Automatic annotation (TrEMBL):
Its cofactor is [4Fe-4S] cluster. It comes from the Bacteria. InterPro entries: BchE-like, Elp3/MiaA/NifB-like_rSAM, rSAM, rSAM_horseshoe, rSAM_sf. The keyword Iron applies. GO terms for molecular function: catalytic activity; iron-sulfur cluster binding; metal ion binding. Keywords: Iron, Iron-sulfur, Metal-binding, S-adenosyl-L-methionine. This is Radical SAM protein. The lineage of its organism: Bacteria, Bacillati, Bacillota, Clostridia, Lachnospirales. The keyword Protein biosynthesis does not apply.
């Protein structure tokens, strides 16, 4: 596979075949993100996409699920997505679902008919970078949506049959706001009910625009202890919503990860967080790469 940049996708997609359909991210404006800053966004030509499909099918590849990369593949036009999906099914007749990242704005730009056609063609899971349940945090981080817009577009994609999965970040609200962010984010998730939840935790890098805010003193990063406490509070507040939910949480500074199925594993996940919180000591400093 010819791939430009850093591969970043939800851990639930580790068994999916990743098919690049674009380079970079069409939005590329989130203040905390550095994944695509060094890349010039462009759509890959159909000839290149078809060549990759042929390469894999020629050696016997016939994956059940395909993940379209990169940053927000759902932002491609409906017609191009349908053309790609048609070629996927030609080369991979066993494919049962096509998944990709999306933004709230990507969904808003597609009509109800577009969403329905994409579902009927085989699109299933869409991963949305929700990040936080606080509107002021979304605005500060230069996200492309408000909470009300997210509610509306998630309802629309669900009405079409598409499956909503969520990316979010503990620590994104900054030092001293972890519990507040946990409570509002839990409220958002209890209302929108994602089927998969990935907590990437706040990843700080000196090349991110957010680093300038840290230097100016307009953003104070939460340390890992506060991240752990925030994650615990969020999990504590999540309610069963009639379906099994896959949860995976990462932490940047420490080798610790909590994952499981909700609500079945909720108590054991909380217990693991309690154990780790007891190990961590107050006074940790923010870790900036």
């Amino acid at each position: 596979m010819n791939y430009e940049g850093q591969i970043c996708r939800g851990p639930m997609e580790r068994s999916s075949f990743m098919l690049p359909v674009e380079v970079g991210c069409a939005y590329n404006g989130c203040k905390f993100c550095t994944l695509f800053k060094h890349l010039k966004y462009r759509e890959l030509p159909m000839e290149q996409i078809e060549e990759e499909l042929k390469r894999v099918s020629t050696v016997g590849g016939n994956p059940r699920t395909v993940f379209l990369g990169d940053g927000n593949a759902f932002g491609l036009s409906t017609e191009k997505l349908l053309a790609i999906i048609e070629r996927v099914h030609v080369h991979f007749p066993g494919c049962e679902g096509i998944h990709m990242d999306a933004t709230v704005t990507d969904i808003s730009r597609k009509s109800d008919e577009d969403l329905r056609r994409l579902y009927e063609a085989g699109v299933r899971h869409l991963y949305l970078g929700i990040e936080s349940g606080l509107d002021d945090v979304l605005a500060f981080m230069n996200k492309d949506h408000t909470l009300e817009q997210a509610y509306r577009q998630i309802d629309r994609m669900r009405e079409a049959g598409l499956i909503y999965d969520a990316h979010f970040m503990t620590g994104i609200a900054g030092k001293g706001r972890g519990i507040e962010n946990a409570e509002y984010t839990a409220e958002f998730f209890n209302r929108t009910r994602p089927s998969r939840m990935i907590n990437f935790s706040m990843f700080l890098h000196e090349r991110a625009a957010l680093y300038e805010e840290i230097q100016k003193g307009t953003f104070r990063p939460a340390d890992e202890l506060e991240n752990l406490i925030e994650e615990r509070r969020l999990l504590e507040l999540l309610k069963p919503w009639g379906q099994e939910v896959l949860y995976d949480g990462f932490h940047d500074m420490i080798e610790f990860r909590v994952r499981g199925k909700l609500p079945k594993d909720k108590e054991s996940m909380l217990a693991r967080l309690d154990e780790r919180i007891a190990v961590e000591k107050p006074g940790l400093t923010a870790f900036v790469k």
